[in-house]
Specification:
19 helices, mainly alpha
């Protein structure tokens, strides 16, 4: 791909809001010792809110870790079952998350089927210079407030992130690199601390999603219409509030789909959402979006007379202050009668 084509591709994505996470857009969770996975809190109030929540959440985490160890000890096979599905919905222990994500996503199976492919991709002569240059430009914009991605850090994960993104650009040249995927890859790295495992998680996860990351965003445009249909059908009051705001649902939901809610939800909630997403697939994205919109109905309605930037800021804040990932996941699954066949039927529905 020519340098001009790459620049044009990334310009389209930037216009769509798919810039790497940075100040004002990154999930910044503080530099206090209790900040998860190296993120930093942006205000003392958020640090205190997180601390208060963790006082009640730690006992839950302890009980879940004990149950996982009893039923699925380390190294045990993780065959698909109603029990494993329930365990993923209740949360994967942090010290088991890398192992379990690799298993439930199918990444482990693919890695074992193609041993050495990751390193082969990195030494391939098929790397595209313009794409690699764009990756290099974006690396330090990804999670800039996270100590593991901060220049000069003793635990700098940026070189590993570069390898993941370069390998993926060769693995899937039709997509190459999209700025939205850098944060997803970085989160996989924070959990696994392995560039090869993170590559396979990225390749497997993106491969199970519709075509969200193409220059034309075709998969997202289809799924945004699915979300619009679900919203009208299930929560018409929220649909009407969005219509009165004059802000297209497409604009509201774009980063949710591309960044898999990294810019919106607190990190514990993102991890709990991904625990389920990697097991159950992309219908989870619609559960999360509907939950956010339902919970944020008043926030949307109260900002309907403001300009576009203010409304989008209000929407982005829908899940920002709610650290209670237990309640959030419970609300997600309070949405009943949500079969995969329903999503597929809506995807096949002709556009107007």
């Amino acid at each position: 791909m020519s340098a001009s084509a790459v620049r044009e591709r990334h310009a389209k994505r930037k216009d769509a809001g798919l810039t790497p996470s940075g100040p004002g857009s990154a999930p910044t969770f503080g530099n206090q010792s209790n900040a998860p996975l190296g993120f930093s809190w942006d205000t003392p109030e958020r640090a205190k809110a997180h601390e208060d929540f963790m006082k009640t959440y730690y006992p839950i985490l302890t009980r879940r870790a004990q149950r996982w160890h009893q039923v699925y000890p380390p190294g045990a096979p993780l065959s698909r079952s109603r029990t494993l599905k329930r365990f993923c919905r209740k949360g994967i222990p942090s010290d088991r998350r890398a192992e379990v994500w690799m298993a439930i996503s199918g990444a482990n199976t693919r890695m074992n089927a193609e041993p050495g492919l990751f390193n082969t991709l990195l030494t391939s002569n098929k790397t595209d210079k313009a794409t690699v240059d764009q990756i290099d430009l974006d690396l330090r914009r990804t999670f800039p407030d996270n100590r593991y991605f901060r220049e000069g850090s003793d635990e700098d994960l940026v070189p590993q992130l570069r390898r993941v993104l370069v390998a993926y650009s060769v693995f899937n040249p039709n997509v190459g690199y999209c700025q939205g995927m850098s944060s997803v890859a970085a989160m996989f790295l924070l959990v696994t601390r392995s560039d090869e495992h993170s590559f396979w998680l990225l390749a497997t996860t993106l491969g199970r999603l519709p075509d969200y990351y193409s220059p034309e965003l075709a998969g997202f445009k289809c799924d945004y219409r699915v979300l619009a249909n679900l919203l009208r059908e299930r929560v018409p009051a929220v649909d009407q509030a969005i219509a009165r705001s004059d802000i297209p649902l497409e604009m509201i939901s774009l980063k949710w789909f591309i960044n898999l809610f990294l810019d919106t939800l607190p990190v514990e909630t993102v991890l709990r959402v991904w625990d389920v997403l990697l097991y159950e697939g992309d219908k989870v994205i619609f559960r999360v979006a509907l939950t956010l919109l339902t919970e944020g109905e008043d926030n949307i309605a109260n900002n309907r007379h403001k300009d576009t930037h203010e409304v989008l800021t209000a929407v982005k804040a829908l899940g920002y202050l709610d650290f209670n990932c237990v309640d959030f996941v419970r609300k997600m699954f309070a949405i009943k009668h949500f079969p995969k066949s329903k999503i597929q039927a809506l995807r096949r529905r002709p556009t107007d």
